[in-house]
Amino acid sequence: MVDRAFAMLDKTGSGEINAADLASLYDTSKHPAVIEGKKTHDQVLTEFLNSFDGLRGNKDGVITKSEWDQYYTNLAVSTPSDEYFIRMMEQVWAISEDEQSAIYSDEIKRVIGLIRQRLLTLSGESTEEFTLRKIFKEFDLNESGAITLDELAAMVAKLGISVERKYISGLLKAID
């Protein structure tokens, strides 16, 4: 689970996670310090990245694979069970332990079908580009031109579809 989360975040495969890797996953626009104008988007991302450095970290705004593994090794020691740790990783990083299973795949297909149905209803069955762009903008909360994991989760909830967070990443991959 730890390796899978790192691989998901390391968009370039460089062996490091930086602010650019996190930008599409971590929406800082709702962060209190950004809202209050006390910190910039980049400052919040850098602080988040630096939190993985530990007490003796270099605070360079980059998470190496070694730093990542050390952080989660330390965290795992304080969790009550392996099951608890796995569920925590699923919730935090929207990944699933069983992404290769037929059950996981079937759930993704089911939810995509519901999303299509609800979006068609919302658009009044229109496939006009203007209508589709309007709906997209409604769900692109940070106006980045892309839907993040959190925005997709919010969209699914707003459409009245109940889905566990661990399926959101799979939904994003399937829809992308």
What features would you describe in this structure?
By secondary structure, the chain is mainly α. The chain has two domains: 2-93, Recoverin, domain 1 (Orthogonal Bundle), CATH 1.10.238; 102-175, no CATH class. 57% of the residues lie in helices and 2% in strands. It is built from ten helices and two strands. Strands 1-2 form a two-stranded antiparallel sheet. The longest helix is centred in the middle third of the chain and has 21 residues, at 102-122. The radius of gyration is 18 Å and the shape is globular.
Number of contiguous helices: 10
Which percent range describes the beta-strand content?
under 5%
The largest pleated sheet is described as: 2 strands, antiparallel
Spatial order of the strands forming the largest sheet:
1-2
Number of β-strand runs:
2
Alpha-carbon distance between the two ends: 22 Å
The average pLDDT value, as a whole number, equals 86
Helix content: 55-70%
Q: What characteristic shape results from the CA principal axes? A: globular
Low-confidence stretches: none
Return the string of H and E elements.
Answer: HEHHHEHHHHHH
Radius of gyration, CA atoms, in whole angstroms: 18 Å
- Can you tell me the CATH architecture of the largest domain? Orthogonal Bundle
Under CATH, the homologous superfamily of the largest domain reads EF-hand
Stated plainly, the CATH topology of the largest domain is called Recoverin, domain 1
Given this structure, which CATH class of the largest domain is correct? Answer: Mainly Alpha
